[in-house]
Amino acid sequence: MSQNQIFRKLEKIRALATDVDGVLTNGAVYYGPEGERLKRFYIRDGMGFERLRNAGYKVVVITGENSELVHRRMEKLLVEHYFPGAKDKYSLLVNWCREQRLDPSELAYLGDDVNDISAMQMCGFKACPSDAFHQIRTLVDYVCHRPGGLGAFREVAELMLAHGPFRL
User: Fold this and answer.
1) The domain spanning residue 27 has which CATH number?
2) How many domains are there within the chain?
3) Does some domain include residue 55?
4) Is residue 22 in some structural domain?
5) How do beta strands 81-83 and 58-62 pair?
6) What's this model's pTM, rounded to 2 decimal places?
7) Beta carbons of 100 and 82 less than 8 angstroms apart
8) Closest Cα partner for 46 from 69, 27, 25, 31?
9) Is 105 domain-assigned?
10) Could you tell me which residues come within 8 angstroms of residue 26 by beta carbon, excluding any fewer than 6 positions away?
11) Minimal CA–CA distance to 27: which of 153, 133, 149?
């Protein structure tokens, strides 16, 4: 897809849905005797959340996991639309779009693995981190230069801010 085609798609985008593990984190989870202990988040991705929110975009965080660590991070980032433990991301996003009065074509999706495919396919713009599963990289409109957990979210946020309807 050419840059101009990507920019034209972004002109219609009003919200961004993102996965967590492999997108906002590098996919690593550190376990101890009590279970999940640490997940690593990239601070510049956090600024991407703030910039999108300030510009008027809605951000949806949707993950199959139900992690206290992720919950705390989403609270810190002031994420209003956070859906942990989501096993059917497609249906969840269809309902969310209906509630928000958004057409799925106005939604971008940032995902990295096969559990994102059904939700991703309904969206007007699809992106993935540079280290996403190969099946995802062939499906998306845009493959980030940055890997998951190291700026992929911020990269997509900045693209939206430069070429979307809520330009800064």
Assistant:
1) 3.40.50.1000
2) 1
3) yes
4) yes
5) parallel
6) 0.94
7) no
8) 25
9) yes
10) 40, 147, 148, 149, 150
11) 149
Contact 155, 145 (CB under 8 A): yes
| For residues 142-168, average pLDDT | 94
Structure confidence by residue, pLDDT tens digits, 62-79: 999 998 989 999 999 999
| 118: in domain | yes
pLDDT in tens, 92-132: 999 999 999 999 999 999 999 999 999 999 999 999 999 99
* DSSP conformation class of 64: S
The set of residues, in sequence order, having a beta carbon less than 8 Å from that of 158 and lying 6+ positions away, is: 48, 51
Alpha-carbon distance of 14 to 79, in angstroms, equals: 16
Domain with 8, as residue range(s), is 3-163
**DSSP-assigned letter for residue 104:** G
User: 125-136 burial, b for 16+ CB within 10 Å, e for fewer?
Assistant: bbbbbbbbbeeb
Q: What are phi and psi for residue 43, nearest 5 degrees?
A: -60, -30
